[in-house]
Amino acid sequence: MKTLLRRTATLLAGLFVLFVLIAPSDLEKFTFEAFLRVPLEGLVGVLLLVAVPDRFRRPAAIALGVALGVFTVVKIMDIGFDMVLYRPFDLVLDWPLLVPALDFVDVTFGRFASVLAVVLTVALVVGIVFLAAVSVQRLGSVAAGRRPVTVRVVALAAVACVSLAVPGIPVYSDAAATSVADHARRFQAGLRDQEVFAAEASVDAFRGHPGLLSALQGKDVVFTFVESYGKSALEMPDVAAKLADGDARLKARGYAAKSAYLTSPTAGGGSWMAQATLLSGLWIDNQQRYRNLVASDRLTLPRAFREASWRSVGVVPGITQAWPEGDFFHYDEIYAAQDLGYAGPRFGYATTPDQFTLESFQRNERAKQHGPVMAAIPMVSSHAPWSPTPDFVDWDELGDGSIYATMPASNDPPESIFGRDPAAVRADYAHSVSYSLESVMSYLERYGDENLVFVFLGDHQPAQMVTGEGASKDVPITVVAKDPAVLHRIEGWKWDDGLKPGASAPVSRMSDFRDQFLSAFSPPKP
């Protein structure tokens, strides 16, 4: 019985180490064929443990095991980040993202849930490292006890890897070594990133620019970020039909539109980084850059409008607690979720339906006797999990939002999409984006006039469950106005006519938009 248990323990230890070394860092590549390979790192590790003197074998095995355990934790993080953000985990720059994640759990499920999440995470990490150390130590002892057999097996496996290799059909795997090398390169780049960002931020061609935004004097200018509205949405029939319908409706009201693509610094999440990128003109693709940005004196679009005598406001329904970073944008007024007057239920992540958010902005700002207003409005109805989505209602019936109490609602977290049928998730995504676009178009129909300039864009692509593997980070952007002089100013951008950019429409980095916009609507610098 003891022999059987020992052999079972050895087998399980071997399978665990084999799985960790061979498993891809992308769930899309988890296929049966992917595991039919010989891990070269495993062969090297076995030889090392066989060759080391007996008195050093145990410490060496524990050290290798701990390293393998840490590697396993990082690989799990890589898989999670790839599923949501289209990229692996960054050992330097991504740790600050864990704080917003914990804040989300705290706000959504309560303090007990957030503490429990921390405890379970720590226990999981410690458990993985312990299991890896025990597994490597077990395999090292068995290999050393059968040294001649072990050496022959390793040699045979190495020869097989070479002799059986066929182009396009991998026999061996060096995925673990490649992953470690990639992380090492990103680690070095991350250590330099703060210095690189400081150099980028030190250049600002529009600081002190005279006559800033003078070509828009008298206009209300609204920048609306449609959550998760990526290029992939345009390929969905529901969204394409909504844009075609909107084109016809807005043209009938005297509007014209120009559209193109921006490459977002993020995908699947990190909306605040995309919004900061567009408004600041700096590439904000990690939390360290975001923190450095909001601690700086960078000229943002809201600040530029404010200094040019606009009333500058931020309408941010996704903000449910203190937001000290808001001071950086120099808004005259910030309307967080609790300031919008909404008395209805939550729909998934969304604290406030997009239609109500736009109506609240209209009531609080544009409906009053006012000078020109500039607003930045991140809309959240198309945020994951994309179900349920509120119904679109008559504007006159919105009131305080109590009408939404008759509709199905929930507090499902964004990650709940990973437990559902992908086809249903994609359908829900298309429906929610269509709702958000309908909110924008209907707002323009109801409240637009000659003095409104409306810019709406996506902040980032949705999760890969929706886009599929290999999707770009491009998002649509559209400028809508009735005054032909406004669109005449951007003719040089060569954007496509209408609400939907074509496949060959211009693409630029999201960080380029601030300078592009300020240049178009300001006089040349003397």
TrEMBL record:
Task: Read off the Pfam families from this record.
Answer: Sulfatase (PF00884)
Domain Sulfatase N-terminal: residue ranges: 276-463
Q: Which UniProt keywords apply?
A: Membrane, Transmembrane, Transmembrane helix
* Gene3D superfamilies membership: Alkaline Phosphatase, subunit A
Protein name according to UniProt: Sulfatase
Known InterPro entries for this protein? Answer: Alkaline_phosphatase_core_sf, Sulfatase_N
Name the residues that span the membrane: 34-52, 64-89, 109-132, 153-172
> What organism is listed for this UniProt entry?
Lentzea guizhouensis
